[in-house]
Amino acid sequence: MHEGHHGMVEANNRRGGHQGRGKWLFPGFLLLTVLLAAIPGQARLLGFDLALVPMLVGGGFLTYNTVIATLETRRITAGSLVVIAMAGSAYVGAYLAAAIVAFMMIGGEFLEDLTLDKTRNAVRDLVRLVPDTASVRRGGEWVVVAVETLRPGDRVLVRPGERIPVDGQVVAGTASVNQATLTGESMPVEKEPGAPVFTGTVSEWGALEVTVDKIGDDTALGRIIELVYEAQERKGRTQRIADRFAAYFTPLILVVSAAVWLATHDLVRAISVLVIACPCALVLATPTAVVAAVGNAARRGVMIKGGVVLESAGRTSTLLFDKTGTLTLGRPAVAAVVAFPAATASRVLALAAAAEERSEHPIARAIAVRARNEGLSRPTATGFNQVGGVGVEAEIEGSLIRVGNRRLLEGAGHLWGPGLTDAGAGLEFLDEQEKLGRTALLVAEGDRLLGGIAVADVVRTRAGEAVARIRGAGARVVMLTGDNLPAARAVATKVGIDEVYANLLPEDKLKLVSDLKARGAVVAMVGDGVNDALALTLADVGIAMGAAGTEVAIDSAAIALMGDDLTVIPEVLELSRRTLRIIRQNIWVFAVFVNAVGITLASTGWLSPVGAAVVHNAASVFVVLNSARLLTYRTHPGHEAAHPVPGAAANQGGG
Q1: Are residues 412 and 343 in the same domain?
Q2: For residues 613 and 598, what is the distance between their CA atoms, to the nearest angstrom?
C-alpha cells in the first residue's frame, strides 16, 4: 500500500513525539515550580516545601521510565544513578536538589528533542512542498485527484509553475525543473521525454506529462526522510563506547560515594557526589551530535546512514573515485574539431552532423549537440548508410560525405578506399587524439579528407575543485575505471589525480578496496552505485552519486548524494570530522572533566547537593547546545586543509 505525502507528514509527527505547545508544558511546569521553590521563606508561607512538587512529579516520571528501561534491557542504565541520586537527596532533606535533577534531566531531553525537531523540520518542510492534488488522465480527460490516490502507471500533468507530485518519467513535453529542494542544484535542469523527475521539484517553465513510478514513502524524498530517522538508531563506535562506559559508570560512582561517606561520615557529601556524577552529559554526547549532523546533510541533499558512517567518513584516509559517471558525466561530447586545408572547422562539423543525423549512436548525438550549440545550419542529407565497424555515409549537396574511424584510411567497407587526399594529416590527427584517450573520427568529402572530430566523456565542471579540496585535507585520492589507460590518464590529469588504476573489472575494484583496508586505510569509495555496487558496499564508506531515483545506490551506499555536485563530498567529509570533534568535546570536556572536578569538590564539601545538581545539569545543557552547532555548520573551499584526516599521511603509499 502506497502512502501519499500526508502519510509521510503523519509519520513524521508520530516520530517527533509531543507536538505543538504540549511539549513545553511538562518542563515548563517543572521549571516554574523549581524557581518558586528557590524563593526564601516559601515553605513557611505554604506550610510545606514547594520543591516536593517538582521532585515527586519529575522524579516519579523518571523513576517509572528507568524501571521500564531496566526491565527491557536487563541491565543497569544511566537513569539508575539519577534515580538513586534523587532518592538520596530526598532522604537528607535536599528536596530542591532532587527537584533540580529531575527538571534538568527532563529539560535536557526536551532540548535534545528541540535539536531533533530542527533535523525533522528540515525534511518536514520538503514534504510540505508536495502538492495535495494532481491532474491525472482519466477517461481521456485531465481530472484533479488527491495525490495519495495515484498509482504507478498513472499519467499526470504538471503545468508551468507547479510542483511535481510524484517520482516518474517524462513522456511528453519539455520543461526547466528546479530540483534544488532535492539535489541542491542551483540551476534548473532541462527535462524532456525519457528524463526522470522527482517529488517536490517545481517546473519553472514548460509543461510535462509524467508517468507515475513512485509516490509517498517510496519516492526519493520519502527515502531521505526514512533514512534520517534510521540514522538515529545506527550507533557508531564512539556512541557504543559511551553506552558501555555509562553501564560501568553507575556501579563505580556508587562505590566512590560509599567511600566518601565512609571517609567523612557526611551523608550530604556522599549524596552530592551522586548528584554531580549523573551521566546525563555522557549519554547525550554522541546522539545529539549525530542527529544534528545528519539533519545538516539532509538539507543539502545528502543521506547519511547513521553515526557509524559519520565516524568512518571522519577518519577517511583514502578516497577512491570511479571514473565514468562520477568524475565524468558518463556521456560523450565533442572535445575537438580540426579542419585540414580543404575545409573549415564549421564545415567539418556541419557536414558530420548532417551525415550522422539518422544515426542513434551516442557519438552521433554528441556531434549533433555541438553543431546545434554553435548555431550551425545542417544541410539536407540523403541516401544514409551505416557501415558496420567503420562509420556512416550520406549524400549531401551532391557529394558523398563519409564520417568514420581509422578504417576509413585502411580501405574497409565497399565504398571506403585508400588514396584519400590529406591522409597523412588524418593519421596524425588519429594518433594524437587516441593518445589522449579520445574517440577520433575523420570526415571525408569524396576522396578528400576535410578534417577530424574527437569525442570524449565530459569531466564534471567542479571535479578538479573537489579533488583539490579532498587532497588538501590530507586524504589520498585514487581513480578506478574499467576504461583504457590513456582515457583514464586524460581524465585524471584534468582533475588532478596522480594515482590511476585502469582496465578494471568489478571484482578488480573489489580486490583493490580489500587490499587497501588490509593495509590499515580507512577507505571511502565514490561511484554511481550501478557497476560499482560491490565496491561501494565493501568500502568503509560507500558514497553514491546522483542517487535520486537510483535504488541500488541508496541501498548499497552508506552515503548517497541526491545531486551530482562533487564538491559536496569534501563538505561531507569535513562535516563528519567536525562531528567527531564535537563528540570528543562533549565527552571529555562536558562529561568527564566536569564530573571529575565536581566529584572532587563534592567529596571535599565545596558543593552542596543543590550546587552539584546545577553544575552537573549545566554540563548537559552545554552538550546539547554544542551539538546543535552542527545544524548550521557549513564548510568553505580551503577550510578542510586546516584539519588533516587522521592517519592520512601513513597511507600515502602506492596501491
Answers
A1: yes
A2: 10
Q: Do the domain assignments include residue 59?
A: yes
The model's pLDDT over 356-375, given as tens digits with 9 standing for 90+, comes to 988 877 788 899 999 999 99
CATH number of the CATH domain containing 346: 3.40.1110.10
Question: Are 532 and 525 in contact, with CB atoms under 8 Å apart?
Answer: yes
Give catalytic residues, as residue numbers: 322
Domain span at residue 408 reads 329-458
Residues in a beta bridge with 560: 303, 544
The span from the CA of 613 to the CA of 98, in Å, is: 8
The reply to whether 363 and 453 lie within a common domain is yes
Residue 370 backbone dihedrals phi, psi, to 5 degrees? -65, -45
Query: Are 334 and 454 part of one and the same domain?
Result: yes
Strands, sheet with 155-158, edge to edge from the N-terminal-most edge strand: 141-146, 133-138, 155-158, 208-214, 167-172, 196-197
Read off the C-alpha cell for 614. Answer: 546545577
91 & 175 share domain: no
Query: For residue 230, what pLDDT is reported?
Result: 57
Please report the beta strands in 368-417, taking only residues with DSSP state E, as ranges in sequence order.
381-387, 391-396, 399-404
Angstrom distance (rounded) from CA 520 to CA 594:
35
Q: What is the pLDDT of residues 486-536, one digit of tens each?
A: 888 989 999 999 999 988 877 788 889 999 999 999 999 998 755 566 788
